[in-house]
Amino acid sequence: MFKVGTKGQIVIDKRLRDQLGIGPGWIALQRLIDDHIEVRFLPPESRDSLYGILAPYTSVSISPGDWHETKEKALADAFAEDFGTSYDAR
User: Fold this and answer.
1) Integer distance in angstroms from the first to the last C-alpha of the chain?
2) Residue 70's Cα: distance from chain center in Å?
3) Distance in angstroms (rounded) separating the CA atoms of residues 27 and 83
4) Is the dihedral of CA 65, 68, 72, 77 positive or negative?
5) What does residue 30 show for φ and ψ, rounded to 5 degrees?
6) Per the domain annotation, does 39 fall within a domain?
7) Does residue 69 belong to any structural domain of this protein?
8) Distances (CA, A) of 90 to 32, 52, 70, 76, 87
9) Has residue 9 been placed in a domain?
């Protein structure tokens, strides 16, 4: 059972967070379905560099200046694929 705080926040039970591996910095994607909210979690960006690891498998190249825009588009596409609707981070 959750109790909603004054700012509309809820705390996810530690047992459930541990089962899912959810920690600080994770992104919570949410959508309204009829009379309830569905929440999915995405892990934070890794601090480890993976630069060039996929180069042998693709011809796609993203310049450093385009990275933020590319990342937002990938997030929106993944959200649409999972939820069947568009995602707007604004």
Assistant:
1) 30
2) 14
3) 15
4) positive
5) -135, 150
6) yes
7) yes
8) 17, 31, 16, 12, 9
9) no
Task: Please give the Cα distance from 4 to 7 (Å, whole number).
Answer: 8
The string of pLDDT tens digits covering residues 35-57 is: 999 999 998 877 676 677 777 88
Rounded Cα gap, residues 2 and 87, in angstroms = 26
Q: Quick one: which of 22, 23, 40 has its CA closest to 31?
A: 40
Sequence-distant (6+) residues with CB within 8 A of 29 are: 39, 40, 41, 42, 79, 82, 83, 87
**Number of domains making up the chain:** 1
The pTM (predicted TM-score) of the whole model is 0.48
Instruction: Look up the domain containing 73 and give its range.
Output: 14-83
